[in-house]
């Protein structure tokens, strides 16, 4: 599966547009991670536990988007975008979306 955040993929021709595809996930923080990250926040620096949580969530959302594209018979997704939003006090939603296409 070819992915691109642009309208095309270098060296490939879009032969058919199959439509919008998306994948999302909602991840919640856990109490243990909140405590350790809260201590890190006092000292300053990257909150690595949260960075890992967001990376895992983004990967899962992207994988789900790819699965939806494959179910349409796509071999590429162009104009890929990611959005993030908060859900309640302890969760984050990641959405990956783009346009499923067939390439030559």
Automatic annotation (TrEMBL):
Please report the organism this UniProt entry assigns to the protein: Halorubrum persicum
Show the InterPro entries listed in the entry.
UPF0145_dom_sf (IPR035439), UPF0145_YbjQ-like (IPR002765)
Specify the protein name. UPF0145 protein DJ69_14920
Pfam families, per database record? YbjQ_1
User: In which family does this protein belong, per the annotation?
Assistant: Belongs to the UPF0145 family.
Gene3D superfamilies listed in its UniProt record: Hypothetical protein apc22750. Chain B
